[in-house]
Each structure stands twice: as C-alpha cells, then as structure tokens.
Description:
Two copies of one chain form a homodimer.
Chain A lengths: L1 E2 L1 H14 L4 H16 L10 H9 L10 E5 L3 E5 L6 H18 L1 E9 L5 H6 L6 E7 L20 E5 L7 E5 L6 H9 L9 E2 L5 E2 L10 E2 L10 H17 L27 E9 L6 H16 L15 H13 L1 E2 L2 H13 L7
Parallel strand pairs in A: 3-4
Antiparallel strand pairs in A: 1-12, 2-3, 4-11, 5-6, 5-11, 6-7, 8-9, 8-10
Helix pairs in contact in A: 1-2
Amino acid sequence: MYHSHETLRDFTRTFFTRIGCSESDASVIADIFITAELRGIGSHGLIRISDHHNLWKAGRLNTAPKITVTRETLSTAVVDGDNAPGMLPAVFSMETAIGKAREAGTGWVACRNSNHFGIAGYYAMMALSHDMIGVCLTNANPLVAPTFSVSRLLGTNPIAVAVPGGKEPPFVADFATTPIARGKLEVAVKKREKTLYGYVQDREGRPTDDPDILRKGGTMLPLGGDREHGSHKGYCLSATVDILSALLSGAGFGPFVPPSVAYLPLPEEGNGKGTGHFFGAMRIDAFREAGEFRDAMDKWIMSFRNAESAEGKPAVLIPGDIEREYEEQARRRGIALIPAVTEELNRIAADLGMEIRL
Amino acid sequence: MYHSHETLRDFTRTFFTRIGCSESDASVIADIFITAELRGIGSHGLIRISDHHNLWKAGRLNTAPKITVTRETLSTAVVDGDNAPGMLPAVFSMETAIGKAREAGTGWVACRNSNHFGIAGYYAMMALSHDMIGVCLTNANPLVAPTFSVSRLLGTNPIAVAVPGGKEPPFVADFATTPIARGKLEVAVKKREKTLYGYVQDREGRPTDDPDILRKGGTMLPLGGDREHGSHKGYCLSATVDILSALLSGAGFGPFVPPSVAYLPLPEEGNGKGTGHFFGAMRIDAFREAGEFRDAMDKWIMSFRNAESAEGKPAVLIPGDIEREYEEQARRRGIALIPAVTEELNRIAADLGMEIRL
C-alpha cells in the first residue's frame, strides 16, 4: 500500500509535536524523514519513529532543546545539541557552516551532544542552493571492528558530499564506510537468506555469511572487507569520521556513542557527550567563478556518463542518480511502508492520542 | 646494499639543482623524497628521479617556476603551480593553508598546474607541529574505472589525514582509494606471480588475477572491488578527490591528468591545467582546547590499541604505526634501493656531470 509523502509528512510532524517538539522543529524533523523515504532510503525513514518514541519514553531524548554555539572562529564553530533529536542540531550546525562560508569562504562545524540525525546527505545537500559544496560526517553506534580486531569500536560512520552541477543535476555521494549498510543484514535475516562473505565476521574474527552474526557477538567489517582488499583503508576512513565528529566537538567517540535504540544501555560517562557530527560548506566562488565551475562539473559528469560499460553492466552512474530517479517515482506513486511498520506507527498514534492513522 | 638517508638526500638535492632548481627548492624536494624512503614508501622515493629526469629532458617540467596565489578569501586560496615539480606547489599550498588557518580557524587550498608530488602524507603532516589537523588529496593519472565501467577515468587518488596525538604519536592515514597501490602490481609482474582477485579487471570488465593486465587494456578497481562489496563507495571517494583537486582549482580532471612519465603523451588541451591537489589545515583550538583534544586523542588511540585481536591476527594498528616503526629502523640501518634503481641513478648522475654516485 502506498502513502502520499504529504500524509507521511503530516504523520511525522504530528508525532514529533506530541512528544514535545515545537511546530517548527517538528516540521524540520519531518522534512528529513520524508526526504529519506523519497530518496529510497527507507531504513532511515518512518521505521525509525518507534526508536524515537522509545528513547523519549525512557527520558533519553530532549524534545525542547536549547541548541547553542559554544566556541567559534571566522570559519569554524562547535555546537552543543542539548540531547535533541539529531536532525535539529544537524540543521542548526549546517546553517551555521553555510553562514560562516558566506563570510570566510568555508565553514566547518563540529557538533556534540546530538543523536541519530537520519540521512547525512540531507545536510550536505543544504549547501547546494547557496552555490556551495556541502560535506557531512557523523559517528554512529559501534558495530564495526577495525582491521585485525573483533572489538566493536566504530560505527558505519557515513560520509556525504554534495556538489552543484550546471545543466546536470548535482553530484550527491552519501555512503557508509562499510561495504553495506546494517539494514541490508536485517533484510537477509528476515528473508532467511545467507549474506555474502566480506560484510561481517564472527566472534573470533572468522569470515561468515550469517547475516544474524551481530546478535551472536560478530562484527561488521570496514569498507575493503579484509586486509588484502584494503579494509585498513575503510578503517582509516571510519576513524577519520569519528575523530572529526567526536574529538573536535567533545562527543562520545567510537565505543561511547549512545545507542539510537532505548533497549541498549547508555555508555559509561566521561568519554564525551552524545553523538558527534561534522559539517562543512565551501563557497564555490571562493575558488573559482561559480558559472565556470558548473560548466566544468557538467563536463566531468558527461565524461562519466559516456564511459564504456563493462560486459553485461549498465551505464556508469553519477552519485545521486539512483536516489533522484527513485524520488521522481515516489512523488508520483507514493511511498510503500512495510506493513509491520504501518501497524507499529498506528499503535504509537493511538498511544499518543493522535488522530491521524496510516 | 644500504645507503644512509643523508647520502640519498645529497644525491636527490644535487640532481634537482642540476636540472635547474634553486638550492632551496632542491632541498625542499629532497626532503619529500627522503621522507618517502624513510617511511618505507619506496615506490614514491628515488625510483621516481628518472621520471623527473625524462620529463625535464622532454621540456615538460618547469624547474624555475613562479608559484602564485591566484584567488583567495579568509579561509581559502587557489594556487597555480606553474608546471613545477609537484612538491614545490604542494609545500607552498600547504603553508598557505596553515597560514589561513592561523587567522580564520581553517585553511583550504586548491592547486592547479602542478605535477606528481610524492607522498600525500608529507603535506598532511606539515600541520602537526602547528597544533593543526592536516588534510591532503590529489588526483593522479587515470588507471581506475568507475563501477560498471572499463574506461580509465580516475587515478588512485589518495587521501591523507594527520591528527596530532598527546603522549601518543600522531594519527597519520595516507591511502589510495583503490584496494592496493599500483606499485604492488608491478612487484607481482616482476616476481612472475599472480595477484589476488578484486584489484583489477580485464579490457571487458571481467575479474582477473593477471597483474600485468594494465598493459593489456585492463583497469584498476576502486576500493571495495565490486559493486556487491562497495566499489561504488570507492568510486565516490575517488570522484570526490578528483572534484576537490581539479574542479575547484582548474586542473585537469580524471582522464585529463597529465602522465607522470614522459613516454605517455600529454592529454588534449582545454580540460584544465596540470595535476590538481587539495590541502586543508584545521586549528585544533578553533574547536577545542588543544591540550584537552590531545588527551582525548590519546584515549582514542589507547582504546584501539587495547582492542581484542581476531584469531591469529596481530594487535590493532593505529594509522602511521607501520611507517613510524619503519623509519626508526631506516634511520639506523639505512635505506636499500633496488640494484636496477641504483644503476639508473648512477647513469643519470654521469649524464648530468654530477660527482656524487650511489
């Protein structure tokens, strides 16, 4: 069953007002949830409302936050998210980065005391309409072991970069620093399928194709998979995301990132506050006339579109193509939620006395 | 046979003065070559002197350059390298980034009209003594095909990040955005060994373990190897490096990066000038008291050092460990060059009337 994105937006907005957000904060949050659904990243969409509900019921989410800049220079700022739903400090931080870039050419903001913020690409894309390149990084719950280890020290720590095009649509890369997102393992578990080798390892560090291994003490592998195929590079990337997100801001690093679900305990104190993010905005014309850059970017994109395909493979994709094509369809056709998610959302709506149902 | 690093430094410095560099420029360049040798990255060391010799003889390298800032804001600059050996514009650009960071919190410099600059990590590490985080990216000769393609559109485009520690040594990541560096394929060819699957593909895009496949129209694969294991993420990373290095500066992008060897023709004109780099410097105390950051970084490093190893694997490494340990040995023991390289260098020395021999 398909729902119009406007219905889902209303639902999300209403939910967040019911748990204490202001109307405007709830609208901001809903836009990020719906953008995730529209871009085909349902794993970061309405399926996560129940996590927010549970965190709020457990008193672990501040829905009336005071988000503040605690330190700044001409091109930098540190933001304290006051334990808000992550979307609010994230939008605040990216707006701050964009404002800094307007004055100083670039703006870089580290954010602490935040929570799960949805899709990183949303914040990177905020830069596009300002003729800026946007960057967004975040750390996340520890599930990934560094090369040679079986300890959960890193999250899937994504990197998002958005670059304006000219006649061509923008380049929007948004990817976890692991071979796959965690959600794909869940899907395989639900379908009772094996997964591929190279994604996870068991408690002892042996390769496995069991998608349910995380519940048995296993860990995810960094991008590259094993040492021979460059997992140390995936580890370097994930570590860099953690350092910029948590150590510059004073957030919890690696194993001390608070879980985005209420059924896992909070990490021990004294290792930083909350989840950490890192945002960047670079004004194109700080480097080059924006029109000239856009023309060059179109040329770049066309070089890749015109590349020769490997035997039996489709045409080369530009980062962002898949999500844009999905969105065009989803706006017309609507968005399908998993039936179990719809039921859960309707239960939450009843629980909170919301009138809207899906 | 081992050579002291001081002998190799003298040799390199003398060579570069003989092809027209000033004494001070030659010293700067020699420091980068010797740092590569000391850190165990011989593929970027004296083996490359002959490429520089050949490029210079072909009139493709300007050894008396005027390196200039062509555009700037408070936190950014664009540098034109005047077709110099890449080390000179790279040092100039990173110094510019550090200077900007001193004033504005961060500094970001895009450089065009440059050439191969040796190891990216050198420039990132320049930030460390200033209590800054250093970043360095560069594009490189096209050898890598984007996911689904067999066209050479990207280089091995490395990423280097250096972060100061406290009592612990700095975190220094410096890695190609491919599973392995090209040099490892050459080694396998010379040893008449097969390589592993996941590094290269043949002309049609089929997996192969032939390390000599690049000479037969094959291509290297991005980090991740194949689509199922995240090669599209390696492609995103490499593309981002190319865009920041070339499109912000006006350098040649992707297929239009000039080769670092004289036996390959220059790319067609009109697609940007020379090789492109991108440099960043972030003042730690723009975000957080430097002492507090260093303590947190030590804690971060110790969390990783204390991680549990997988069955049969060594302890977790911090990026930079291997190179630092190699350097401690190499300073005592000296540096071994491949005999064929020593012979070639001695021939070049004779050719240029240098007195020094290895």
